[in-house]
TrEMBL record:
Name assigned to this protein: Methionine aminotransferase
Cellular-component GO terms for this entry: cytoplasm
Gene3D superfamilies, sorted: Aspartate Aminotransferase, domain 1 (3.90.1150.10), Type I PLP-dependent aspartate aminotransferase-like (Major domain) (3.40.640.10)
Family classification: Belongs to the class-I pyridoxal-phosphate-dependent aminotransferase family.
Keyword annotations from UniProtKB, A to Z: Aminotransferase, Pyridoxal phosphate, Transferase
SUPFAM superfamilies named in the record: PLP-dependent transferases (SSF53383)
Names of required cofactors: pyridoxal 5'-phosphate
Residue intervals of the Aminotransferase class I/classII large domain: 25-387
Gene Ontology MF: a single term: pyridoxal phosphate binding
Classification via Pfam families: Aminotran_1_2
Length: 390
């Protein structure tokens, strides 16, 4: 059967979760919490169902939820989106990404991505007929040659972006490296895009996971960027409900109008009771205001345990992912490719992880894998016990 995506197999997250289940490994691969969400959130959804909010909602999403989101963005980032013409509820971040791309990329259009990049970007661009131009994050290295931090590749970006580049995809906090963009980075990006008609898709699904007192800098906090951006967000990450698949896309009215043309024939609408429940729950800011401290404690606990291993830890300023370099381990498997190492770690050690090479198109081996620390302490402890034996 002729394939529209000949190079695409099954997404690495599904592959590793299946392998973890098959071998009863502790799954630190795919990013999702293993602890329950707030019972109040479930009660809010329950109440919506009992109040008979069970038919199609408005195509663009339930009004209360869109208004709540607009208020929240206004308070946190200072930009006022019109909840009726500029915010659309989506079936999670990934649907928002695909829909935004289909809405603005035509065959032959150039789209710039920064690798390592979330694995849905490239196939989504290819389905739209767009041409992917990939640049890579620059790694700074310690004296021992190991990655110390990741930097935005400004020079490569300025070479890659032309006056008629259709779209640039950015992601902050960044999956998988945890890198976060600073305000000065947004300023620099706005300068770079000044004489172009390039749109921006800003994937900010980990926006409430930024640590050590730092802040998340959204395109919504930058008027010039907000005017040309699709802002992608996800409730699954923030409220510990990745299976609900509810998120949103905020964009200026003309961009949202095009987005909705595709959205209505893609999912049409997103499930009604979850939207009502989230709308009620969203009015209390305490959950997401406490999230950085909540996840920072998990990050620090996990890192302290990893310090007792020979894995080299990379910095984690944001997200719920911890990257480690395994090439310093003194076992023969330290020579394996990232994908083979992750397979071995899952099947033989009983801890699943994600190879960073899965976030690149061309085979790129940096000896780095990603663990998700959105887990109960007991899960992290069991995983650390196994990793400390290596
Ligand atoms: N974003 C999640 C991760 O990086 C996975 C999402 C998915 O499995 N599609 O682990």
């Amino acid at each position: 059967f002729p394939s529209r995506l000949p190079k695409v197999g099954t997404t690495i997250f599904t592959v590793m979760s299946a392998l973890a289940a098959e071998h009863q490994a502790i799954n630190l691969g795919q990013g999702f919490p293993d602890f329950p969400c707030d019972r109040k959130l479930i009660a809010d959804v329950n109440e919506a169902m009992l109040a008979d909010h069970n038919q199609y909602p408005p195509m663009i999403g339930v009004p209360n939820l869109r208004h709540g989101i607009a208020n929240k963005i206004q308070q946190l980032y200072g930009h006022q989106y019109n909840p009726d013409s500029e915010i659309t509820i989506t079936a999670g971040g990934t649907q928002g990404i695909l829909t935004a791309i289909l809405a603005c990329v035509s065959p032959g259009d150039e789209v710039v991505i920064i690798e390592p990049a979330y694995d849905s970007y490239r196939p989504s661009i290819e389905l739209a007929g767009g041409k992917v131009i990939a640049v890579s994050l620059e790694a700074t290295r310690d004296s021992d040659g190991k990655v110390a931090s990741y930097q935005i590749p400004w020079e490569a970006l300025s070479k890659a972006i032309h006056a008629n580049t259709r779209l640039l995809i950015i992601n902050t906090p960044h999956n998988p490296t945890g890198m976060v963009w600073q305000k000065s980075d947004l300023d620099r990006l706005a300068d770079l895009l000044k004489n172009t008609s390039t749109l921006v898709l800003s994937d900010e699904v980990y926006k409430h996971m930024v640590y050590d007192g730092a802040r998340h800098h959204s395109v919504a906090s930058h008027p010039e960027l907000a005017a040309r951006s699709f802002l992608i967000s996800s409730f699954g990450k923030t409220y510990h409900v990745t299976g609900w698949k509810v998120g949103y896309v905020a964009a200026p009215a003309p961009m949202s109008a095009e987005f909705r043309k595709v959205h209505q024939f893609n999912v049409f609408t997103v499930n009604t009771p979850m939207q009502y429940g989230l709308a009620t729950y969203l009015s209390d800011a305490s959950h997401y205001l406490n999230l950085p401290a909540f996840y920072q404690a998990k990050r620090d606990f996990f890192r302290a345990g990893l310090e007792k291993t020979t894995f080299k830890l990379l910095p984690t300023p944001g997200t719920y992912f911890q990257c480690v370099d395994y090439t310093a381990l003194t076992i023969p498997e330290a020579k394996l490719s990232e994908a083979e190492f992750c397979k071995w770690l899952t099947t033989e050690v009983g801890v699943a992880a994600i190879p960073i090479s899965a976030f690149y198109e061309k085979p790129t081996e940096s000896g780095v894998i990603r663990f998700c620390f959105a887990k109960q302490e007991q899960t992290l402890t069991s995983a650390l016990d196994r990793l400390q034996k290596l």
